[in-house]
Specification:
Elements (H helix, E strand, L loop, with lengths): L7 E8 L4 H10 L2 E9 L11 H14 L3 E5 L4 H11 L2 E4 H12 L3 H27 L11 H38 L4 E6 L5 H9 L16 E7 L2 E7 L9 H6 L1 H8 L3 E7 L4 H18 L6 E6 L8 H15 L3 E6 L8 H12 L1
Parallel strand pairs: 1-2, 1-3, 3-4, 5-7, 5-8, 8-9, 9-10
Antiparallel strand pairs: 6-7
Helix pairs in contact: 1-4, 3-5, 4-5, 5-6, 10-11
Length: 362
Amino acid sequence: MKRAGNEINAILIINRNEDVNEAIALMKTLGYNVVDTYVVKGVPDSRFYIGKGKLDRLRELIEKENISKIYIYDSVKPRQIVNLMRELKVEVLDKIQLILEIFAQHAGSKEAKLQIEMAKLKHELPLIREWVRRAKLGELPGFLGPGAYAIDAYYRMMRRRLSVIRERLEKLRERRRREREKRRRLGLPHVSISGYTNAGKTTLFNVIVKETKSTGNEMFTTLSPKAKAAIINGCKIVFVDTVGFIRNVPVEVIEAFYATLEEIVYSDLNLLVIDGSEPIELIKHKLTSSINTLKTIGFMGKPMIIAFNKIDLVGKDLENRRELVEKIAKENYPLTTDVIPISALKRMNIDTLKGKILEAIK
């Protein structure tokens, strides 16, 4: 398989419990041409994550197809990454690094860039520690350029940079808190718009507040929250568009974006957007995953409405799907008040949704 346009040839290694289509979509967003996919069905190998047979086949494929990178869509131990890079002589990255690359591609605000850099540094520190340990033991002569002392100095520099970023983010977080308190002093209720990445959150936000924020099929087009007020039947309400969730979201990513996600925590009502056009099993998984993420960041004890989006793409089983979503939502989050079928793109049932939002706020 040859390069397509500016695409870079890469290989995907994925755990069977992860979503292959999601992983490939993320890699394509970055412009990678996925030459081959290896699914690890059993317990990952403790040394290389994959078995010796697959390791040998990978070595042949890397040379044949001019492979530049290998992505393992899973949480991987530092020693497994170092062992693979030593054996295969190409860059090996894991799920968190893939997500952070996409974040970096879409980062626009200073806060988003700092959050991404912090997450990247925190994730890479254990890997650098492994490099330092092995370089000092003489196991990696000339590996990745500098020697043991240079790598050690780089590790110390990374820790200093991490401290600086934490201080800057805390200042930005304090400014956001003051802005939020200023809006609250005006007596304005806040509604956060959350949901799985690419569910249509920003499209719905644009429709409700008459905004023109960029949307698209790419994942994670929103990294920094955007707040804007809208008038619904004479009531002024602040709506906040937030960063999208992802399946089995890594803890490091949640921690890095907590300053963004806390907009959900402090809202009076959460509007959870679900893509109703997807396969039913995927809808069920994304719904429970989203609710679990909301609980993880601390959104509890407040009402939630589900916007069952993209109904223009759903067939005759719309009502069955809606009822199933309502059942699962109320089992997992009892304060779910309504499940409203809508199409943000086609402006279907938006007034009904606004009415339910107003009822919940009051």
